[in-house]
Amino acid sequence: MRLPMTLSKLMAASLIVLLHSAALAQAYGEPDKEIRKYLYRWTDARAQINYGDRPPPDAQNLLRIDLLQIGQQVQSTLPYQVRRAAGTYPVMLFTAGKCPPCNTAREFLVKRGVPFAERTIVTGDDSVELKRLTQAEGVPVVTVGTAALIGFDPDEWNLSLDASGYPKTSQLTVSFKQEPARPLTQKEKPPAAVAAQ
Q: CB-based contacts of 192: which residues, under 8 Å, 6+ apart?
């Protein structure tokens, strides 16, 4: 059956609009649906290590890896140039306790006005994940987007932040507060154990 040309065009346009709206809904996510933003590491029944965003119910040695960047609440308060740079090249600082270079690195980022997420390296699991993520065996380490800068070198850090579009001087308001540091990894109960409770 041959449809009139205008009806065919109308159906094709409707199909394109429908597909486009479905793609947009998936890209931006539905507000009522939970968005998984954690990475998990676990051991399966064959003793193999696996990574993913949804561990199976029989996962063993489940570990949550916190790679969340700065939160939406924080981003909404940032000046435009900083928000744009942070959205494209988010900064994450990896530190440890009793680490003078880590304190210097943190102060450097705060003074420059760079919003960042800070993850602390405390356990052996933290160290393993730091090495996997950045190839670093010590701290401080900063990631600017996907680039890892190992060790604190203010010249190298400034070059990377400049190239990423961060302002050279702080544009943050006096009331701006960095989010508190959190551990990189955290032990979790397997989904099956949580469901049994």
A: 57, 58, 59
Residue 17 in 3-state DSSP? helix
- Coil, strand or helix: which one is 194? helix
- Candidates 134, 170, 132, 127; CA nearest to 151 is 134
C-alpha span between 40 and 53 (Å, rounded): 6
Q: What are phi and psi of 149, to 5 degrees?
A: -110, 115
Per-residue pLDDT of the chain (197 residues; tens, 9 = 90+): 555 555 555 555 454 544 444 444 444 443 333 344 678 888 888 889 999 988 888 888 898 888 777 666 677 788 999 999 999 999 999 999 999 999 999 999 999 999 999 999 999 999 999 999 999 999 999 999 999 999 999 999 999 999 999 999 999 988 888 889 999 999 888 776 555 55
User: Rounded CA gap, 147 and 145, in Å?
Assistant: 6
